[in-house]
TrEMBL record:
PANTHER family: FAD-BINDING DOMAIN-CONTAINING PROTEIN-RELATED, HYDROXYLASE, PUTATIVE (AFU_ORTHOLOGUE AFUA_3G01460)-RELATED. One of its GO terms (biological process) is secondary metabolite biosynthetic process. Keywords: FAD, Flavoprotein, Membrane, Oxidoreductase, Transmembrane, Transmembrane helix. The chain crosses the membrane at residues 7-28. It comes from Lophium mytilinum. It holds the Pfam family FAD_binding_3. GO terms for molecular function: FAD binding; oxidoreductase activity. This is Mannitol 1-phosphate dehydrogenase. Residues 10-370 form the FAD-binding domain. The keyword Transmembrane helix applies. InterPro entries: FAD-bd, FAD/NAD-bd_sf, FAD_monoxygenase.
Length: 426
């Protein structure tokens, strides 16, 4: 069905990650015309898990209830029913997980939170099934974006230039679109900043994880220690566990051009001296000795420039310590698609983007900052919590609520009302 616009407009979405795909699904629902351009040759997801909180699930519901229904089919909770509302058990990384110090474990969560995680590939597969194949163009790496009197010209690596009415950059933490939005005004804020942390990751079969960790393997846990923290949680309907081992980096800067860096097994293991031998065994068996550096956009002064906007990690890439980055991308996609559904003429696109920026940026940037703070807390560098696990757990039981319990229906209502008032559209 054609969009009900008086003058139809076209949107170019750059990037087919969780943000770009969620936006595409939202635009299909709102009958907004779009083309999605992805630099890779096909839909691709790194082999890792992703956990989604109630706000992310609510976003799915409001973008397209089918998406939420399909997610329910592929997602996995904690395997012990009594841990249904637990986000993470809180344990120590040291041998014995803290028992030697008398710490028998804590946990954080909320009655309003239900643990769910999925394999990224499974999440991408359900998302792409909701997007018409003819709206997606692969092997399209954006290399230039220019604006001229209300039109945007996008050039790709293959030499093609297209003309469109709006560009929404969903091209991730290192996305090119960021330079088109910020470059002329805030050039020092285009590149992501190093969080001074890198990680190793692994996916292990649940049988092996259970053999090594016992029943602990079936439920999400955060293991903490000075300068390092590890998370583990079930994915793939309980058939596998996702393991991420984080290490603080004292060097102050990531010294390599690429964001990943291959090391040898010994280097990887020497990063985790003093860690419980069971965890090390899992790491040794299943993690490739590759360091993944963590970068974020701790400061982004605006998410738009006239007809070009940023969404997801290109706007607010965050460290993963609150498992909230994809959730923010889903929230963005919800608000952006509802706003674009109201646009009747291309000239109103910057108004939609300004409202998006004013509503989304304060919340998403707060997620970036508090995620960094959470990483500090898990590594015993929190100024108020230190290495006191009771304080750490109490902090974690509070710090997620504003993320999870956000009223998204109200945010959408406010966005729509603002747009109608500012444009005079009924
Ligand atoms: C270790 C780790 C664990 C995480 N765990 C969680 C979690 O549990 N829960 C959670 O909510 N979040 C989590 N996150 C964050 C989450 O993964 C991201 O916030 C989310 O995937 C961002 O999606 P995106 O679509 O914005 O960007 P991306 O997924 O990075 O997608 C960007 C897309 O743009 C394409 N692209 C890039 N440049 C160009 C170009 N020039 N032209 C065309 N296409 C281009 C890329 O190929 C890619 O497909 C985690 C992150 C990390 C690093």
């Amino acid at each position: 069905m054609m969009h009900s616009a008086e003058v139809p407009f076209n949107v170019a979405i750059i990037g087919a990650g969780i943000g770009g795909l969620a936006l595409a699904i939202g635009l299909v629902r709102q009958d907004v015309r779009f083309t999605l351009y992805e630099s890779a040759g096909e839909y691709a997801a790194v082999g890792a898990g992703v956990g989604l909180g109630p706000n992310a699930l609510k976003s799915m519901d409001l973008i397209d209830p089918k998406l939420r229904g399909m997610y329910n089919q592929v997602s996995t909770g904690n395997l012990r029913l009594e841990k249904k509302n637990v986000m993470m058990e809180a344990l120590l990384l040291e041998e014995g997980f803290g028992e030697k110090q008398g710490w028998m474990g804590g946990e954080w969560g909320s009655p309003t939170f239900e643990r769910t995680s999925a394999h990224r590939k499974a999440l991408l597969d359900i998302m792409t099934s909701l997007i018409p194949r003819n709206t997606v163009k692969f092997n399209k790496r954006v290399t230039n974006i220019q604006q001229d009197t209300g039109k945007v010209f996008v050039t790709f690596q293959d030499g093609e230039t297209i003309e469109t009415d709006a560009v929404i950059g969903c091209d991730g933490v290192k996305g090119f679109t960021r330079s088109a939005v910020l470059g002329s005004r805030y050039s020092d804020l285009v590149d992501p900043k190093y969080t001074n942390k890198y990680l190793y990751r692994a996916i292990a079969p649940i049988e092996d994880a259970k053999r090594v960790l016992g029943e602990r393997a079936t439920d999400a846990a955060m293991f903490m220690g000075p300068g390092m923290n590890w998370s583990i949680y079930p994915i793939s309907k309980g058939a596998e566990v996702n393991l991420v081992a984080f290490k603080k980096d004292a060097r102050g800067a990531w010294p390599y051009r690429e964001y990943t860096h291959q090391v040898d097994l010994q280097t990887m293991l020497s990063d985790f001296e003093g860690v419980d031998s069971r965890l090390l065994e899992l790491l040794k068996m299943y993690a490739k000795p590759v360091q993944w550096s963590l970068h974020h956009h701790i400061t982004t002064p605006t998410y738009y420039n006239a007809h070009v906007a940023l969404l997801g990690d290109s706007a607010h890439a965050t460290g993963p310590h609150q498992a909230a980055g994809a959730g923010q991308a889903l929230e963005d996609a919800l608000v952006m698609s509802r706003l674009l559904g109201l646009v009747k003429r291309a000239a109103d696109l910057p108004t939609a983007f300004r409202i998006f920026d004013s509503l989304r940026r304060p919340r998403a940037q707060k997620v970036v900052q508090t995620s960094y703070d959470a990483g500090e807390i898990y590594t015993f560098a929190g100024p108020e919590t230190g290495s006191d696990m009771a304080k750490v757990t109490a902090n974690c039981n509070e710090r997620f609520l504003w993320i999870w319990e956000h009223d998204l229906e109200a945010e959408v209502r406010i966005a729509e009302k603002m747009f109608r008032m500012e444009t005079g559209n009924a």
